[in-house]
């Protein structure tokens, strides 16, 4: 079905905006620049990518792929600034390990080594730091990685949120295929590895600012075992992304923009726990934009979708994996959501800072 003249004008206007050179118009950094939406994307494209542009950086993946001595390595870095430091299902310590491991995993790598840099606020109880470090050690042991070097800095009271953690991770890529958003093509299936939004909603409720009670815990977990199951069953995996800041919606927009394709998602197919959906409705937010810390999105050859889904569901972390949509040729660069009410709407990147920082 061809779009009407009015629809085509809208699509043409969106395309002109999308192709416009990125430019940070604000004079100062705002919280929106760290929310994972349009402001973050503009900041990365206009400032960081412009300054550091090189072939290894330009894919803007969760990890860079490096060729070293005949081996393929993945290298990633991340920073964790969650408030509160402790929340149901986890804390900033295991979040830092799992988040770094997952960035390596979706690059097709077997995680090996991590670094850990701590920025501590004057006045942080030593007992809390001990608890955080213990959680990191337990998470590292569970994921089969080692923390091999690190750094510690202390800032004045009131200049931090108790503890920030910066990590880097190195893994070896044993998967023989090539992963990347540029390989996505029409006909591919979009798979999410489990229910979305649990981490973000859990952290928001843990702050105690909202009079909402829900039986929720964070989904923080290492996904490298699940990824290995997926990659072992099929060569049809095009790309994977870790659904953290900005949630699944941000990943889908990255797919559409980078591969110059349309991503069409069925709202009814997206796994969301009733507790998350209910809390999100009360908060006026869409679970598609809420961070996960133990979920990823995989783009898979459509002919291999059933095989991939079966393999993922065999793993405990992937038991509720679901095909949520398909890749199409038109309209390129857009994510379309087929709603539960029978309509279709554009699912764009976040604008502004509607969510508190949660990772």
UniProtKB/TrEMBL annotation:
Location of the PurM-like N-terminal domain: 62-173
CDD domains associated with the record: HypE
Coiled coil ranges: none
Domain PurM-like C-terminal: 185-331
Top-rank taxon, per record: Bacteria
Pfam families xrefs: AIRS, AIRS_C
Family according to the record: Belongs to the HypE family.
NCBIfam families: hypE
Protein name in the entry: Hydrogenase expression/formation protein HypE
Biological source species: Allokutzneria oryzae
């Amino acid at each position: 079905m061809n779009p009407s003249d009015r629809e085509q004008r809208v699509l043409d206007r969106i395309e002109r905006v999308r192709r416009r050179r990125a430019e940070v118009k604000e004079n100062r950094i705002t919280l929106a620049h760290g929310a994972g939406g349009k402001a973050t994307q503009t900041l990365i494209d206009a400032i960081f990518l412009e300054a550091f542009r090189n072939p290894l950086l330009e894919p803007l993946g969760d990890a860079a792929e490096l060729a070293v001595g005949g081996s393929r390595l993945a290298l990633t870095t991340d920073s964790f600034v969650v408030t509160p430091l402790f929340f149901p299902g986890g804390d900033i310590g295991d979040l830092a390990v799992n988040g770094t491991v997952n960035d390596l995993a979706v690059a097709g790598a077997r995680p090996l080594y991590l670094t850990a840099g701590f920025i501590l606020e004057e006045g942080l109880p030593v007992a809390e730091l001990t608890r955080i470090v213990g959680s990191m050690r337990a998470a590292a042991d569970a994921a089969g990685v080692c923390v091999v070097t690190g750094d510690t800095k202390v800032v004045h009271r009131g200049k931090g949120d108790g503890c920030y953690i910066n990590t880097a991770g190195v893994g070896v890529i044993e998967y023989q295929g090539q992963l990347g958003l540029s390989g996505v093509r029409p006909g591919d299936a979009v798979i999410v590895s489990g229910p979305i939004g649990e981490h973000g909603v859990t952290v928001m409720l843990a702050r105690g600012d909202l009079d909402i009670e829900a039986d929720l815990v964070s989904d923080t977990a290492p996904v490298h075992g699940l990824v290995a199951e997926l990659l072992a069953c099929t060569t049809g995996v095009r790309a994977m992304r870790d659904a953290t800041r900005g949630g699944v919606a941000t990943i889908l927009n990255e797919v559409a923009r980078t591969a110059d394709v349309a991503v069409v998602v069925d709202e009814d197919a997206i796994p969301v726990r009733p507790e998350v959906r209910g809390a999100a409705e009360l908060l006026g937010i869409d679970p598609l934009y809420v961070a996960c810390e133990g979920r990823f999105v995989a783009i898979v050859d459509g002919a291999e979708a059933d095989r991939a889904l079966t393999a993922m569901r065999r793993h405990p972390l992937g038991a509720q994996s679901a095909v949520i949509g398909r890749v199409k040729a038109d309209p390129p660069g857009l994510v379309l959501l087929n709603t539960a009410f029978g309509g279709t709407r554009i699912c764009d990147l976040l604008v502004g800072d509607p969510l508190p920082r949660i990772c």
